[in-house]
Amino acid sequence: MAYSKPTYKPRYENFIGGEWVAPLNGEYFDNLSPVDGEILTKIPRSSTADVDAAVAAGVKAFETYKHTSVIERSTLLNKIADAIEANLEALAVAETLDNGKAIRETLNADVPLVVDHFRYFASVIRAESGTVSDLDENTISQEIHEPLGVVAQIIPWNFPLLMAAWKIAPAIAAGNCVVLKPASATPMSILILMETIQDILPKGVVNIINGAGGKIGKHLSTHPDIKKVGFTGETTTGQLIMQYATENIIPSTLELGGKSPNVFFESIMAKDDEFFDKAIEGLVLFAFNSGEVCTCPSRALIQESIYEPFMKRVLERVKAITQENPLDPTTKMGAQASVNQKEKILEYIKIGKAEGAECLIGGDEYKNKTFPKGNYIQPTIFKGHNKMRIFQEEIFGPVLCVTTFKDEAEALAIANDTIYGLGSGVWSRDAHQLHSMSRGIEAGRVWVNCYHLYPSHASFGGYKKSGIGRETHMMMLNAYRHTKNILTSFNKNKLGFF
Amino acid sequence: MQVQRLIATVEALEVIEKLKREYGELVFNQSGGCCDGTAPMCYEKKDFHVPSRNIKMGEVGGCEFFIDKDQFEYFRYSQIILDVKEEKAAFGNSFSLEIDEGYQFITRSRIFTDEENKSLA
After folding, report:
1. Among A429, A159, A181, which residue's Cα sits nearest to residue A294?
2. Which of A208, A317, A482, B58 has its CA 20 to 30 A from that of A48?
């Protein structure tokens, strides 16, 4: 049975210094649900003065928070995880209404992964240490970690809660305070999450500021009290953020998308067994999260000897994708996050047809009878070649581009013929082939005989133009802290120079 | 007549004029990648250092429009039509300036004919 749509507050505010604060200019914008096109709530359209207030709250909180013990921070993160877990269903419904994705995904992937992410960082900080070296008999060198201060985090609209968790958890685990700007398309679920944890969080440790990115994004990224910027989004704003980071000489981490190859070798069809069934699903995962995933397996490379029979089975599976009501747990694919995104995907479908790609299934919007004003696209598969624009540009929708290859060498060449290098998949029953392909692919993540798994403690990040930095692993902690070297001499005697 | 790689709609040119009044000189760079990728980003000219190897696609409303060199290889067979739409709600997470004013620039494309490709070669 479908979840019903709750009534949300008519408007939300910014979350600054532990309080709900109206924007100083009094301006708000409508937050629409892509599920039905109706207004969910109103969200502050903040100005630079609100950014200053949020950063100031972070600076004030950091004075105390930087002195918290590892035990205190670990306990805090565990309490956050418990509170989110206790409200899992409500947060999943809010996420589905805010972003459009199917409720079976938010219930079973997004929100449980958020919970686990806080628990992961709560635990790893208890089990790590700096280093001490005996440089000589009387000289000790200590490498100590210290937090950076107040960090800015600008997150995308495809996994609003999970991307918030990926950024907030390591930052506060490492002892920083955060000013986070949600994507304007999907601000509500994060604000509901903040309501869920506001009594647990020390005031000012996490601050949320809403609005359009142009003015406040620049103001935040260039603010002299901001010590690091984390961004997930498109490439040009990523470049601009790196340029802004030069102003105050601060680090930035960027996750900028991909055009991930998913490579299927002929041995997958050696048997019609559970593994072949898994491989079919592995291809159809292009429709996961309505295709709005940076690692969407949006290029399927299939060995030509199995193309016809494999594709026949794949198309049966794609035909079985149901779309009607994202709040119904039996619905397999939800809405696209915004009207704008839906139109962009349709523009790409038009380009694909004009380029001469063969549309095997879908190829149009989905007329949703339950929600005629929602943003729905049919899962679409094109067959073409890797030089086409639809094979090279990130569509960020349920649009798969399929091509064939003769042998392993050609598969690797096509897989790496992209400006991106975020995700990739390899499917085979041949262990040697799996090894040589996974080492040969230029990407930060190679899924071997699986796809779209995002466990904590498996690093995630890009090669090439997909960005800089590694998330979802304890190594991210060092992206949120300084290393201080304390060099101590126990020698009573002077150097002898002067 | 010379085939143009880049043109703009009247509506896009109007928004450019509006932004120029507020920010001064502007520059466009075609973006790629996640979320709001494959949209043109509009920044203050003094703000964005255009990567030195980017390709200039043309000018719109007196503003230069660039694209990444590698991306250009896939765009070179398309005419780019810079358009704009009103966007008062779901305006993504980029820093492009028009979103503060309630708009979003869009890159529309038309695949060139064989004759057009020949004349551009």
Report:
1. A159
2. A482
pLDDT tens by residue, A209-259: 999 888 899 999 999 999 999 999 999 999 999 999 999 999 999 999 999
Give B-chain residues touching A295 at CB under 8 angstroms. none
- Name the residue with tokens 């949020």: A54
Query: Which single residue is written with the structure tokens 């930052």?
Result: A171
- In terms of CA atoms, which chain A residue is nearest residue B22? A215
- Eight-state DSSP code of residue A460: B
Angstrom distance (rounded) from CA A425 to CA A394: 17
Q: What is the pLDDT of residues A294-313, one digit of tens each?
A: 999 999 999 999 999 999 99
Active-site residue A296, yes or no?
Answer: no
The dihedral over CA atoms of A27, A32, A37, A38, expressed in degrees to the nearest 10, equals -70
pLDDT of residue B2: 81
Q: Which two tokens stand for residue B114?
A: 């064989």
Q: Domain span at residue B106?
A: 6-119
- CB of A215 within 8 Å of a chain B CB? The answer is yes
Average pLDDT, chain A: 97
Residue B85 lies in a domain: yes
Catalytic one among A95, A177, A294, A408? A294
In this complex, is the C-beta atom of A337 within 8 Å of any C-beta atom belonging to chain B?
yes
Of B1, B22, B105, nearest to B60 by C-alpha is B105
User: Kind and range of the H or E element at A116?
Assistant: helix A111-124
For A130-156, the pLDDT digits (tens) are 999 999 999 999 999 999 999 999 999
Classify residue A358 as exposed, middle or buried by CB count within 10 Å of its CB (0-12, 13-18, 19+).
exposed
In a domain, B42, yes or no: yes
Q: What span, in angstroms and rounded, lies between the C-alpha atoms of A413 and A155?
A: 32
Number of CB pairs, chain A paired with chain B, less than 8 A apart: 184
- Note whether B94 contacts A233, CB cutoff 8 Å: yes
In one-letter notation, the amino acid at residue B98 is E
Chain B neighbors of A395, CB-CB under 8 A: 38
Q: Which of A13, A95, A105, A255 is catalytic?
A: A255
Tally of domains in chain B: 1
pLDDT of residue B90: 67
Contacts of A157 in chain B (CB under 8 A): 35, 90, 92-93
Residue B37 is part of a domain; what is its CATH number?
2.60.300
Question: What tens digit of pLDDT does each residue of A345-369 get?
Answer: 999 999 999 999 999 999 999 999 9
pLDDT at B27: 97
Asked whether residue B1 is assigned to any structural domain, the reply reads no
| Backbone dihedral region for residue A489 (phi beyond 0: left; psi -120 to 50: alpha; all else: beta) | beta
Residues 96-135 of A with CB under 8 A from B: none
CB-based contact B91 A347, cutoff 8 Å:
no
Say yes or no for a CB contact (<8 Å) between B71 and A213: no
> Does A288 score more than 70 pLDDT?
yes
User: Along the 121 residues of chain B, how does pLDDT read in single tens digits?
Assistant: 688 999 999 999 999 999 999 999 999 999 998 888 788 999 999 999 999 999 999 999 999 999 999 999 999 999 999 999 988 776 778 899 998 888 999 999 999 999 999 998 7
Q: B39 contacts in A (CB within 8 Å)?
A: 234, 344
Note if A408 is an active site residue. Answer: no
